[in-house]
């Protein structure tokens, strides 16, 4: 990644009113899937993790990889909406998500488009990686090189846990900011 550092010098975010988001959901098909958990992390490090009640159908991959990790108390969709709105507050931040097309659609399904507590256009972190010359499809597969270069220990994060994935996203983002400010 060293040769990519010069691109990071151009990393100048539009706003610091951002929130990192990750969701886990029952299906990649947004017509039948529902949100099962959500992790939100503010730039300050404040975090919120919720698991939602869900009794519906789940894709086989979700049954094997997500459902076993959902061990926390489950809350209703209505309670999740209240807790998320309280956590986010009135500032209406920009959402940053790694796989924003799914995270956003499931957040919209939870809140409805008109009641979304964030700006309606999410910031796609995969596109940021792409613009920096990093393959967004495999940046986690190359974890030893990419994360070691950033000084991030992946052992601290459980993949496919929405809170840990949101925290990892925030930590990568902060490292990009740190590198962009170096002389």
Folded structure, characterized:
- With about 180 residues, the chain is of the alpha/beta class.
- It has one domain: 2-Layer Sandwich (Nucleotidyltransferase, domain 5), CATH 3.30.420.10.
- Helices cover about 35% and strands about 15% of the residues.
- Strand 3, helix 2 and strand 4 form a beta-alpha-beta unit.
Residue windows where pLDDT falls under 50 for at least 5 positions? none
| β-strand amount | 15-25%
Classified by CATH, the class is Alpha Beta
CATH level 4 superfamily: Ribonuclease H-like superfamily/Ribonuclease H
Shape: globular
Sequence of secondary-structure elements:
HEEEHEHEHEHHH
Tell me the domain tally: 1
Distance between the termini: 17 Å
Q: Reading side by side through the largest sheet, how are the strands ordered? A: 4-3-2-1-5-6
Q: Nearest-angstrom radius of gyration?
A: 16 Å
Tell me roughly what share of residues is in helical segments.
Answer: 25-40%
Secondary-structure-based class equals alpha/beta
The count of strands amounts to: 6
Question: Helical region count?
Answer: 7
What is the average of the pLDDT values?
A: 89
């Amino acid at each position: 990644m060293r040769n990519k550092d010069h691109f990071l010098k151009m990393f100048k975010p539009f706003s610091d009113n951002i929130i990192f988001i990750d969701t886990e959901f029952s299906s990649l098909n947004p017509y039948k899937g529902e949100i099962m958990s959500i992790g939100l992390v503010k730039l300050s490090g404040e975090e919120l993790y919720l698991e939602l009640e869900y009794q519906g159908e789940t894709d086989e991959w979700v049954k094997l990889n997500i459902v076993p990790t959902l061990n926390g108390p489950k809350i209703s969709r209505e309670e999740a909406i209240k807790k998320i709105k309280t956590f986010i507050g009135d500032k209406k931040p920009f959402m940053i998500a790694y796989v924003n097309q799914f995270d956003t659609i499931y957040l919209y399904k939870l809140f409805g488009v008109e009641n979304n507590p964030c700006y309606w256009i999410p910031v796609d972190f995969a596109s940021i990686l792409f613009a920096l010359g990093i393959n967004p499809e495999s940046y986690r597969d190359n974890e030893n090189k990419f994360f070691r270069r950033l000084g991030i220990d992946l052992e601290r994060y459980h993949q496919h846990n929405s809170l840990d994935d949101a925290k990892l996203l925030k930590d990568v983002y902060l490292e990009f900011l740190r590198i962009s400010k170096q002389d």
